[in-house]
Design goal:
It catalyses: Hydrolyzes free adenine bases from 7,8-dihydro-8-oxoguanine:adenine mismatched double-stranded DNA, leaving an apurinic site. GO terms for molecular function: 4 iron, 4 sulfur cluster binding; 8-oxo-7,8-dihydroguanine DNA N-glycosylase activity; adenine/guanine mispair binding; metal ion binding; oxidized purine DNA binding; purine-specific mismatch base pair DNA N-glycosylase activity. This protein has 16 helices and 7 strands. By secondary structure, it is of the alpha+beta class. It has 2 domains: 213 residues, Hypothetical protein, domain 2 (Endonuclease III, domain 1, Orthogonal Bundle), CATH 1.10.340; 127 residues, Nucleoside Triphosphate Pyrophosphohydrolase, CATH 3.90.79. The radius of gyration is 26 Å and the shape is elongated. It binds iron/sulfur cluster. Iron/sulfur cluster binds next to helix 10 and helix 13.
């Protein structure tokens, strides 16, 4: 039976207070820090402990920070690309994408002159392709409106395509030293634990309280180091399962002191992940493979795919594959092979993709004989795409594709399937995707 948390006058529950954890709070950081005024969020009064906390954090960061490629020169371009790339991406993978990107697009001017297809191809596997399109649009805007120089004021940074409040704050503080916080999921977790924020962190009042504390904690003239140190602490020490014994802020941390660090942050409602049952078909004539390019806007905008769609109620995946291909291209096809199922997680849905090999029916006869007389005929229509291509396995490698379709192509054409960071389960810097 759950125990009732009996409130002490300072707002700390008796159960929590008696949960006696190893660290003692610093002098002056005890009951006076925990006013009885807020039921949902307990506030600490700012005091002498903040400079101590800042110093402990910076000292720790100076010794324990990871050597990352964007921590060398801190150009705004590198800070920007790394911040956007790391959204929903594990660090190791982010580093390899970052290095590849900088080799191909070392500066804003090179990026701005690139073809979108090349940018999407380099982004392939990171997911959320609108981020890549926005980066390209922002680079072109910097060239057109700022003479190729990355703007340094917050308003101009914020006005770049795809740059929301988090990314703008990160660039302004880390690249230009502005006194602004960076509150990603890691920082949210650290602050909610230090200040024992006991309501869902993505909602008010907790979100506002966390942002105010995050700002208050930024030391004058040290925003670059401090913001990175907060994120680094969240990534390395104050993880989902906190390593409080190794934490430089343990003496300042209320949740740790109360023994409830594992109960912070308080989660909000979980997003419902819907299952999606879909099909796709690979139509081949000899060495040639039919692919189509999706419209510029919407899901997988401007990416190449094998035609397909959802399985309708009462329909088998095979039937759906034939129907979808017909609807999207006008080609009459039949199933020749079952390539199995690819499962892939996205933010709001989980895709089960049934994959089939297809061939044209009556390619050289029947009513459509004339239209099918070419070796690789054009589609009679394109209802879900802006462009089509008969391509080869080698050429396919140079087309940007959604992760599930790339997995299929790799499995068919003998390339080991790459892992992807698109699954919804990736939580690194998840908070930033609200931008
Ligand atoms: S003491 Fe524990 S809970 Fe508190 S900030 Fe450090 S790692 Fe996180």
């Amino acid at each position: 039976m759950p125990q009732t948390r009996k409130k002490l006058p300072n707002g700390v529950s008796k159960k929590d207070a008696s949960a006696g954890q190893p660290a003692s709070l610093l002098p002056g950081f005890e009951e006076s820090c925990l006013p009885a005024t807020a039921d949902t969020v307990r506030h600490l009064t700012p005091g002498d402990h903040i400079p101590g906390l800042q110093k402990a954090l910076l000292d720790w960061f100076a010794v324990h920070q990871r050597a990352l490629p964007w921590r060398v020169s801190y150009t705004p371009y590198e800070v920007w690309i790394s911040e956007v790339m790391l959204q929903q991406t594990q660090m190791e993978r982010g580093v390899s994408y970052f290095l590849r990107w900088m080799q191909r697009f070392p500066d804003v001017a090179t990026l701005a002159a690139a073809h979108e297809e090349d940018v999407l191809l380099l982004w392939e596997g990171l997911g959320y392709y609108s981020r890549a399109r926005h980066i390209l649009a922002a680079a072109r805007k910097i060239m057109a409106e700022h003479g190729g120089v990355f703007p340094s004021d917050l308003a101009s940074i914020r006005a770049l395509p795809g740059v929301g409040p988090y990314t703008a704050g990160a660039i302004a503080s880390i690249a230009f030293g502005e006194k602004l916080p960076c509150v990603d999921a890691n920082v949210e977790r650290v602050i909610s634990r230090i200040f024992d924020v006991d309501s869902p962190v993505k909602q008010e009042p907790a979100a506002g309280v966390i942002h105010r504390w995050a700002l208050k904690l930024v030391p004058e003239g040290k925003s670059r180091e401090h913001n990175q140190a907060m994120m680094e602490l969240g990534a390395l020490v104050c993880r989902k399962k906190p390593l409080c014994g190794a934490c430089p802020l343990a003496a300042f941390c209320i949740s740790h002191h109360l023994g409830i660090a594992d109960q912070r942050p308080v989660p909000g409602k979980r997003a419902v992940i819907k299952p999606v049952n879909a099909v796709t078909g690979v139509l081949r004539i000899g060495k040639n493979i039919f692919v189509q390019k999706r419209p510029p806007s919407g899901v997988w905008g401007n990416l190449w795919e094998f035609p397909g769609g959802r399985v309708e109620p009462g329909e088998s995946p095979e039937q759906a594959s034939v129907r979808e291909f017909m609807e999207e291209t006008g080609f009459e096809v039949r199933v020749t092979a079952n390539y199995g199922v690819i499962r892939h997680g996205y933010t709001t849905y989980r895709l089960t993709l049934h994959c089939f090999g297809l061939e044209l029916m009556n390619p050289c006869g029947g009513a459509e004989a004339e239209k099918y007389s070419e070796a690789c005929p054009p589609p009679l229509q394109l209802t879900a795409a802006q462009q089509y291509k008969w391509t080869t396995p080698e050429e396919l490698e140079n087309l940007a594709m959604p992760a599930a379709h790339r997995k299929l192509a790799d499995s068919l054409f003998n390339k080991p399937a790459a892992t992807s960071d698109e699954p919804a389960s990736a939580t690194v810097r998840q908070a930033r995707l609200t931008e």
